[in-house]
Amino acid sequence: MDINTESFENYSKIKSLCLKLIQNPKNIDCVKELNAIVETSPKSFIKVVQPTVLSTFYPILKSISENKSRDDDKRVIVDTFRNLFEKSTVDKMVLFFNIYSFLLLEIYDHRQHIVLPIHEEYKLSILNCMSALMKSASSELVFSLYTRENAPRFCQMLYTALEVAKTEQLRSLRVSAMECIMAIAKVLDDNDFQDAELRNQVAEVFLFFLPGIASGLTRIALEDEKVGHKVPMVALKTWGRIVTLLMSNYNAPDEPFDLRSFKDVMYKKSSPPGTERRRKFKNDKDLKEYLNTNKRTLSWYKDTDKSLQPLVVEFAKLTHHSHYKVREELAEMCGLVAESCFMTMPVSVSHLIEVIITLSQDENDDVKQNSQGILQKLSERLSSDNFKTLLENLEEGFYTGINSLPRKFNGIDEREQLVALNLIIGYVNLFGKYKLGQVLLSVAHLNKLMDTLLHISEFDRSNVSLLEEYTVKDLESTPVLRTPWKNFRRFKEDSIKNKLEELCALLVKHGGFDIISDFLLDVILYRPETKKEAIFILNESVSGMERSEENVRIVKNIVSVYIDSNCWEVPLSVSEDEFGYVHTLADVQNNVIQVCLLVEGIGKIALALKKDFQQFLLKTLHLVLERAGSGNPLVKTAGLSALTNITFACGYSDITALISSNIDYFTYHVERKLNKLEKNEGVLNVLAVVLNYSTVDMLTYIADIIQEVLIQSCDKFKEKKATAFLEIFKIFINCLRRWFEVTEKIEPVKSKEEKRRELEHFEVTGINTEESGNFSDEIMGKTAEEMYQEDVGKKREELDKEMEGAEVEEYKKPEPPLHIKLTVAVLSRSLHFLPSKDRTKKLLALNVLTNGLEILRDYEDELLPIVHQIWSPLVQRFKEVDDPLIINYSFNLLVVLARLSKEFIRMRTMKDVFPSIVALDKFSTESYLKDKGSSYRYSQMYKLQLVILQNLPRVLIDLDVADEKFIEAMGVVFKYLSNKQPVPLQKAAVDFFKVLALYDLKLVQSTMEKWKKDNTGSEYGNNIQQIMFRYGFVMLK
């Protein structure tokens, strides 16, 4: 024996201590010293001294059994045993049972069959020592220990450990008790747990203990969360390993395991499970007979499966445990049992798989990923014949879960609804590509699943608006997620909607596209009451589609149904059709949802097919553009979303690039359909979107379209479409301003003196500038129209003279650019709608004229004739005093006219319009005492007053009106200097005088000084004083 110096010294110490203990068995100090040496010595050394130490403890154990010793003293002895067994092996059965019996009797009263009331620390030492003893048994001893004859001996310790685990408060003690159970079952050590031969022999003994251990551990695992997470974790681990030990898919020792026989037994009626186990034994002979005859037969597996089923169902409660480690351990336990016992306990395993399914959607990533990994492994194995019985149970669970969905979605508990959807999603993932198609081939399963999805997807139409708007929103080329048309009746949370969409996508991902699409297309065609819901489910199903020739064929059918006129062309306003059927509000709201879903579906198909969608582009793009230009905000949003998705899917950088690449296609279709506008009303919507996203490079193509629109707008039979024509004109004008970067040019205000000095530079010798330098209406004594006609006459006379004389080279005026010609044509046509009785048409016409004139500012020959034509109908608009919005738009047009044509309209403005503007001072009484909390500030009249006050000074300056007109205007504005007026109107009035002071300082100064004298201390005094002080330094000059 090769022992180093330290070991030799320890050996001498141990031998000396053993001699002392033999002489005095009650010497606890010697035991403590001995324990310290054992604890720090290596295993090789302990293996040598083990016989010496154990022989020394025999008299000590005898002394303890005969005399009562303190628990603390006995705990030192037990701890010494534990340290000894952790580092050595026990290979003799007599020695094993001597120690085993000692430990058992220290914690268990075999007469009253209860756990002895000893200290918790001593119980912990005993259980830890028992675990160490069980693990120290050699391989040869294990096969001798685990026999049916020794089953009663193990039963007492198992009962004791289970009672400690159930009743004690100390968490570490409860954990040690359950680890002791695993040690006795030889499943605590992973190496032993993987030894199939050892597990088989141990299982033959433990089959008698399974019911009690399983129920007890279930009770511990389901205790209140206040016990912490460690106790339920160990309980779940112990439950899973012991059940796996007994129920693993290996054959019974004396009977081959046959799947067909097992299925026959599963469907046979038998005596209630556990009947034999619950009977009383009269004597040892009966007990021995039971131990020898009760075996793990097919009937035993079936009965055990049924008896475990109620316990397994209870584990579903732990899926909501607050600590993620408990949920993680639950998933591992369920996965272990499901993978190892799917043949022997298919009923219970199906419930455990439901638990794994629930955990696969857990909020914790680790739990979620582990559960999904388990499901993936099970899914891959479901195709095996060995899984047939389990698969049948899973299909039944799937069907039950589907049946429960309507009831849960008819309630209000959205958390319960989410859990129910997660369960169905888990089942779909479990069946996967290998079995989902087979499951859906069942008519009962397919009909129930799809009808349930249609039921829970019912739409709520109450929030669907039919109000129209005329704006085109810019969307970036990324998939759009906003879907305001999808409001559901049976749930409100987005999380549930997302889960429902995920479920639909998974059904297709795992190979059910052909079956599901056929079913839903039939619903769309023949069940109008659930058409919307069917379209929704089909749209979401497409999201899970993989690109393949078969799937593209299916998509062709879907697109054909979607764009069919019976489905696509539905009324979007309350109306009566040609057959006398009245489309009610409810009908139209349903139609709006349907249209939104259809166009959304086109976008989703594009995203799914990517580049392959090009084959559908020419069929669908025009229809999508029509929806993108709709006046209904929901339909417009859906259309633009689909257009953006198509752009993204086909690889274009943005919508403009998409339109540019297909401009020939658009031009052809738009021009062709404009010729038959009464049958193609949506073409104007298409044109609106095309214009909005076009660039100046496309102007030549768009010019032909605009010319066609101009022609169509002249058709009196298409008067109903005038509003749409004006919308097109408005968008086109805005596009031109954007393309050619036309912005308002507002020059700084110049004083009268500065203007006079500028005019001096243009004086011509021999010409009276006072007469010839000013060509305004009042100086010339003629109106602009009279001067215009006179000029035309002179031109004709000069032309006739030239024709009579010698031939000379004819001068041709350069033609204006194309966009100027189009602008003139659009403005001229829009003018015809200015006198309309329809308010919307007038507003649109005013808007077009206001924005369009800015484009013509550098082309005087085109500008002035248009200004001349505008004037007469514009004057009439200022007389509509009952409509402040019309006057507001008209005044804005006047501001532009004054800035661009200046003195050309001065005389007629002062004669025709200025009186109407001055007459608006009566409205100053309406705004009087309207503070910031008043609803008046949201009225059109308030907005009109604000616009006039802000822009009137520039109009007067641009027209260079006479001083008396300035004074008259200041008199009107003076009323808004009252501190009883709304503050924004006061500020605008103060700014009015600021601008006029820049133009004619003396006039403003004299007026202010007069008002100051007359209004000292009045409600006007503060603002007058403010103007004086603010601009006093200027006025003093």
TrEMBL record:
Residues covered by the TTI1 N-terminal TPR domain: 12-363
Alphabetized InterPro entries for the sequence: ARM-like, ARM-type_fold, HEAT_type_2, TELO2-interacting_protein_1, TPR_TTI1_C, TPR_TTI1_N, TTI1_rpt
Residue span, TTI1 C-terminal TPR domain: 729-1000
Record SUPFAM superfamilies: ARM repeat
Gene3D superfamilies: Leucine-rich Repeat Variant
Alphabetized PROSITE patterns for the sequence: HEAT_REPEAT (PS50077)
Protein's UniProt name: TELO2-interacting protein 1 homolog
Originating species: Exocentrus adspersus
